[in-house]
Amino acid sequence: MIQTFYGTGTIPSKKNSKQIFKTRSGKPFISSSNAYIKWENATATEMSCKLKKVIQTCLVRLTIYPADNKRFDLDNKITGVLDALVNAGILEDDSWKCVRGITAVVDKSSIDTKGKDVWILTIETI
């Protein structure tokens, strides 16, 4: 079974958005930024409405159509999308036992993005 999800907007970096906070007792802890958490929760909610849970192993393909030539780390985009899939309950986890392969492609030529990043996620059950 092949499932496809279409997303728009920038996939924020989870790794580069960490912030240090302090508990009431003054002990520091690290957390993702509110912007990243908001993106992941909103994306996970949308994914859970449009995708079915993957019970077996799968292959994941992420195609990104960036709106501009701004530099970004592709692995950070992959991490954000996989974490959103786990948050949505689509994937049990994003370890190799569930995700057997990942393909990520950046395509600058194919579509008019109308000023926003566009990304397409394909999950193939194997």
What does this structure look like?
The chain is α+β, with helices and mostly antiparallel strands. It has a single domain, classed as Holliday junction resolvase RusA (60s Ribosomal Protein L30, Chain: A), CATH 3.30.1330. The chain has two helices and six strands; from the N terminus they run βββαβαββ. It has helices spanning 34-50, 74-88, and strands at 2-8, 18-22, 28-32, 58-65, 99-106, 118-125. The protein has a four-stranded mixed beta sheet with strand order 1-6-4-5, with helices on one face. It is globular, with a radius of gyration of 16 Å. The termini are close together. The model has no long low-confidence stretch (mean pLDDT 89).
Short description:
The protein has 126 residues and is α+β, with helices and mostly antiparallel strands. Helices cover 25% and strands 33% of the residues.
Task: Offer a few descriptive terms.
2 helices; globular; four-stranded mixed β-sheet; alpha+beta; two-stranded antiparallel sheet; 6 strands; 126 residues; 60s Ribosomal Protein L30, Chain: A
